Amino acid sequence: MITGPDRLLPEHLAARARAHVATGAPVAAPRDAATLALIRQGAGGVEVYVLRRVTTMAFAPGMHVFPGGTVDPRDLESGTGWLGPAPAVWAERFGVDEARARGLVLAAVRETFEESGVLLAGGHPERRRPSRRSHPGDVVEDTSGQAWEADRVALIDRTLSFTELLERRELVVRADLLRGWARWVTPEFEPRRYDTAFFVAAVPPGQRTRDVGGESDRAGWIRAKDALTALVAGQILMLPPTAVVLGEIDRYGTVDAVLRAADGRVIETIMPRPVLDDGAPHVVLPGEPGYLG
Questions:
Q1: What's the rounded Cα separation, in Å, for the pair 292 and 288?
Q2: Is 188 part of any domain?
């Protein structure tokens, strides 16, 4: 049977899985979600930005995760400025329709800004105003300051839509900065389930992440290898999809290598299933021994 830190199921999830099997409880429909692994080049290799979710969260409390969340219906607004691969390209990458693909990309960019302060956006290519500090096609260089923070908070409390923020600042989403990496569906035993698109992106030059709190009580940069070592040692908690993606990123020594690898990946939908190996809870993936369904 498969073992390893990326397959270890925390005991509270194992208990939930056992209860689900025993009672035959109904399976919840998954909601669309997106998450983005921000990466940068560190002295010891590629570093990834991770957050620890507060223990009061209904889903994945205390887990270390990438920035991300569910698709807001307003993420589907067709008027949002866009530069880079069209929604049709992303639809093919993730195996969804164009409207869902657009929502996934916008959710990834919006949630990353909300949870890290990094905004993957740039100047509108069709608007040329000499007074603007950014030129058409440029990437935003700085998202610090009170005005940016007010916009970030307004996105979180939903008094401002992402489309409205971009339009007011004459910006467009830089979809060309993102790469598709994986698609994971929450196991059937969870009462809250998500169909999650995983993206990777390098932090744009001039931008800095910041610990903005909210749904997390800790945030920072860490090498993928170090995060997995901490997971094995029991120092941190992590859901299997996050651990698997970190293990995959750890195979590459540079940010450019990670982005090139993303371009060549075939994205298939993965839904883990729990199994017990000598009493120890693990998960198996499609195509592996013990996977049923």
A1: 9
A2: yes
